[in-house]
Write a structure and sequence with these properties.
4 helices, 2 domains, two-stranded antiparallel ribbon, single chain, 5% strand, mainly alpha, 2 strands
């Protein structure tokens, strides 16, 4: 995992970027994904203060399923009391619902 303040200019799909003090981890898209996603990932890794506009259009089922591989499946359930095993039982449906709620503006992190 990269923890330094500077990131290399190009990152491969195995890289995971630490978001700094927040502790959040963002997965980077594989090389086979849209070049726009790779460009956004590289820009975010290089410039932590950059403000992106309208990323909702890039939130797809394929990208969410890719990111699912990096979720800690052994972590405790959240405030919604759903753990990774339960979420995975309907992974496609849950990912589609998540994307729709974020894009629709009614998603609220708990």
């Amino acid at each position: 995992m990269q923890t330094s303040a500077t990131a290399p200019a190009l990152l491969n799909h195995r890289d995971v970027v630490n978001a700094g003090n927040a502790g959040a981890v963002f997965c980077l898209p594989p090389a086979s994904m849209q070049s726009s996603l790779r460009g956004i990932a590289n820009k975010a890794a290089q410039n932590k203060t950059h403000r992106f506009q309208n990323l909702y259009r890039l939130l797809t089922l394929e990208f969410l399923l890719y990111c699912w591989r990096y979720v800690n499946k052994k972590a405790a359930s959240g405030v919604d009391r759903i753990n990774a095993v339960e979420y995975a039982l309907n992974l496609n449906g849950n990912a589609l619902q998540l994307a729709a709620s974020v894009k629709g503006g009614w998603y609220r992190a708990k």
